[in-house]
Amino acid sequence: MKAKLEELRAKAINELDSIDSPSDLEAWRIRYLGRKSALTEILRRLANLSLEEKRATGAAANELRAFLEKALALKKEAVSESEIARSIERGRLDVTLPGYPPTLGRLHPTTQMLRQICDIFTTMGFGVVEGPDVEWDYYNFEALNIPQDHPARDMWDTLWMDSETADGQRPMLLRTHTSPMQIRVMESRRPPVRVIVPGKVYRYEATDATHESMFYQIEGFAVDRNITLADLKGTLFEFAKRLFGEERTVRFRCDYFPFVEPGVEMAIDCFLCNGGGCQLCSGSGWIEILGAGMVHPEVLRRVNYDPEVYTGFAFGLGVERMLMLKHGIDDIRLFYSNDLRFLRQF
Ligand code: DAH
Q1: What are the angstrom distances between the C-alpha of 303 and each of 51, 127, 298, 300?
Q2: Ligand 1 within 6 A of CB of 292
Q3: Residue 86 to residue 20: CA distance in whole angstroms
Q4: Which atom of ligand 1 is least distant from the CA of 316?
Q5: How much is the pTM?
């Protein structure tokens, strides 16, 4: 019996040596360790043997089974390792290949400009607040000294919301400018206030190279005792220099906005031709960059600020316009048409 077991061991190990696939390995297991294998048969028949034979053969057969099981386990590991090695060889898994680089995003040019402008004003002591895009007529027009049926409303082509009051008025709109936040902020604070308001605004407008139905504005205003037009000029001149270069000069001319008095339009000397006249400044040497003025006494009264005690200045600028000027972009539609060839340049 001993000899038979040794023969079995030699044969099994010999076969195991040449196996290199999981399926052959399983067949080997069934052949040598399975229910119908010779070894299992021997172990089953132990019961029929004499005590002496049982002891000798049983020990040897059990030892052989443990030995084969161990050999099987070791071989299993080797086979699975060589499986991986083979698939690497076949090129299915080349662990040395570089990975796919993640696509890096970037901030939209408008966001970059918004942040740059907000930085400039916050270092001058302005706080930043935002407001609702859907606004009441009251804040967008009425409280800003633009009453119903006043021709000044024509300055803003308005997108009205469907909702109607009983008398057929439409009290809600998409804000046409960020100026309504002047009222909301002053309603909730007492002077001094120094705030800028970045945000989206909407116009009922056919789009072309210089008009979009949605764009960004930044409104700013400061109200306190003794604020004068000199404060307005100093603040906005400083802003223009920080955004367009230290060497800039500014020009203020009269303009009309219902919520300021006096109202001004601010221009900078053209940074492309230094005022000599070029295509960017249409030959004039000047580029208009924003509207501003001293907050109208009617607006102050509306929010219960005494115009005899408090004065203030306000301004509003177009964010995309600043970008277009700065980078010589000639079509505002480029900002929101999602063309990566354009956006990747920023
Ligand atoms: N809200 C104005 C517009 O959208 C811009 C503006 C002009 C804002 C003059 C102001 C200002 O605060 O004083 O056209």
Answers
A1: 112, 19, 9, 6
A2: yes
A3: 11
A4: 8
A5: 0.72
Coil, strand or helix at 274: coil
CATH class in words for 109-343 = alpha beta
Nearest to 179 by CA among 296, 259, 297, 253: 259
211 has catalytic annotation: no
Ligand 1, pocket-test mutation among 259, 295, 299, most atoms within 8 A of CB: 259
- Going along the chain, which residue ranges are E strands? 127-128, 134-136, 172-174, 193-202, 214-224, 250-255, 260-269, 286-295, 311-318
Ligand 1 atom 10, closest CA: 315
Contact call for residues 315 and 292 (beta carbons, < 8 A)? yes
Catalytic position from the list 9, 314, 319, 321:
314
Lookup: tokens for 70: 């161990």
Q: What pLDDT digit, counting tens, does each position of 244-277 carry?
A: 999 989 999 999 999 999 999 999 998 888 888 8
Q: Which amino acid is at 18?
A: S
Distance CA 275, CA 255 (A): 22
- Residue nearest to ligand 1 atom 3, measured at CA: 177
The band of 91, judged by pLDDT with boundaries at 50, 70 and 90, is confident
* Secondary structure element (H or E) that encloses residue 167, with its range: none
Nearest CA to ligand 1 atom 8: 316
177 lines ligand 1 (CB under 6 A): yes
Residue 96 and residue 35 in contact, taking contact as beta carbons nearer than 8 Å = no
